[in-house]
């Protein structure tokens, strides 16, 4: 039997009907859906490569759109946290520095993933026919699968703790679920 008392308490601090919260949740779910649908469409049709004149140009364009969407998602996430109450018991140095440490580890995974894969490796180049010479098995891929996704999730978790935000924690769960679905879809 599962003890749901902690979730009930968390939901007591979160207004899931708040427009900012809904927009944040939708933007979180939209991003991986968008890039997976567009990448698969490109793989089937090569339409973006034709429009942009080359697979590299098309991949760089999609990557730029993904980066912009990620900025929008992060902004919506932050605004949703700011519009919801803080958990007073967490608004302390210990929680703040724990969140900072978790965000730092997440940032390490995201940046090292990007450096290991490069721009086209990070932003779905394989769907454009831009293949790497061999599978990347160095850090951080030798530590965990999908370090970009889990690093990003850790950043949001840390950000939520730094702001003592129950809404942020709930939105972080949406991030984790969205990435889990994306990993299943991509696999």
From TrEMBL:
Uppermost EC category:
transferase
Q: How does it sit in the membrane?
A: Multi-pass membrane protein
In which domain of life is the source organism classified? Eukaryota
Biological process (GO) annotations held by this record are:
methylation; phosphatidylcholine biosynthetic process
Q: Name one GO molecular function term.
A: phosphatidyl-N-methylethanolamine N-methyltransferase activity
- What chemistry does it catalyse, as a reaction equation? 1,2-di-(9Z,12Z,15Z-octadecatrienoyl)-sn-glycero-3-phospho-N,N-dimethylethanolamine + S-adenosyl-L-methionine = 1,2-di-(9Z,12Z,15Z-octadecatrienoyl)-sn-glycero-3-phosphocholine + S-adenosyl-L-homocysteine + H(+); 1-hexadecanoyl-2-(4Z,7Z,10Z,13Z,16Z,19Z-docosahexaenoyl)-sn-glycero-3-phosphoethanolamine + S-adenosyl-L-methionine = 1-hexadecanoyl-2-(4Z,7Z,10Z,13Z,16Z,19Z-docosahexaenoyl)-sn-glycero-3-phospho-N-methylethanolamine + S-adenosyl-L-homocysteine + H(+); 1-hexadecanoyl-2-(4Z,7Z,10Z,13Z,16Z,19Z-docosahexaenoyl)-sn-glycero-3-phospho-N-methylethanolamine + S-adenosyl-L-methionine = 1-hexadecanoyl-2-(4Z,7Z,10Z,13Z,16Z,19Z-docosahexaenoyl)-sn-glycero-3-phospho-N,N-dimethylethanolamine + S-adenosyl-L-homocysteine + H(+); 1,2-di-(9Z,12Z,15Z-octadecatrienoyl)-sn-glycero-3-phosphoethanolamine + S-adenosyl-L-methionine = 1,2-di-(9Z,12Z,15Z-octadecatrienoyl)-sn-glycero-3-phospho-N-methylethanolamine + S-adenosyl-L-homocysteine + H(+)
Q: Which keywords, in A-to-Z order, does the entry hold?
A: Endoplasmic reticulum, Lipid biosynthesis, Lipid metabolism, Membrane, Methyltransferase, Mitochondrion, Phospholipid biosynthesis, Phospholipid metabolism, S-adenosyl-L-methionine, Transferase, Transmembrane, Transmembrane helix
The record's subcellular location field reads: Endoplasmic reticulum membrane
Instruction: State the pathway, as annotated in the record.
Output: Phospholipid metabolism; phosphatidylcholine biosynthesis; Lipid metabolism
Gene3D superfamilies tied to this protein: 1.20.120.1630
Under the cellular component aspect of Gene Ontology, which terms does the record hold?
endoplasmic reticulum membrane
Pfam families in alphabetical order = PEMT
UniProt EC number: 2.1.1.17, 2.1.1.71
Q: What name does UniProt use for this protein? A: Phosphatidylethanolamine N-methyltransferase
Its encoding gene is what?
A: Pemt
